[in-house]
């Protein structure tokens, strides 16, 4: 459909001051605007409104031809959010798997027949340092013929926006207790003055099999992330010299530890950048003058 518009100006004038009044009308040039009839309707949805990091999201896009004619040369593109990563070979078009295609680069859909609908789905994984809200939309481009004697126009149509709230809820509090002995070459402990620690995460490993033993874990698609680390203890204690004067002695011990954290299976598609850890409490107990016990509470968070 084309809208054509012009303007008209009516005016009067005299050729000389005592002459008759002459009336005249002039018209402007025509301007035309092509009105594009809506031919495609694009709707997008996501399977999770609330999720956590390393979860897998499935996006579905419904592209419907609502016109009475076939729409040709349809091209689809979806710029996935920067806080997610596309999982390769997860694109399906009308339940048919399409390998080696990427929504960010886009791909051709061909012709969508009148009153027909194409369903596209693909999966992404939420990265570790994600924003709290992830939004996304899709674009479809197609040929629109407004004049059979001219090349078709390329028309772009955008879908609705989807939103997913990301919860930062992957954490665990652990207790680590160790017994320490003071070698006979060092003086006996009178009392412990200070305890400091330094934590170092050495390695991580994903284990999927032990978690699948309950229906609850099967439904949530969880796996275990094994965390291996070491703690360096810096101990300063007081000892008696000649039963009158006190002295200070510093010792250093290193102990290993391991724990696990339940995480979504999507972690296998990501690289763990860092694991946060924080010592929340340290308590110690002197068992005898050459043995003491240290218990600490540590928060592990992804």
UniProtKB/TrEMBL annotation:
Domain of life, per lineage: Bacteria
Stretches assigned to the DUF11 domain: 40-137
Domain SipL SPOCS residue range list: 188-286
Matches recorded under Pfam families: DUF11, SipL
Name of the protein in question: Conserved repeat domain-containing protein
